[in-house]
Amino acid sequence: MDHERVVKLLLTQSNIEPKTKDKYGCTALMLAIMGGYRSIVKLLLAQDALINACQRDYEGIVRLLLEREDIDVDASDNYGKTALTYAVEGGYNGIATLISDWSAFRYLVRRPFS
Question: pLDDT under 50 in the chain at which residues?
Answer without folding.
Answer: none
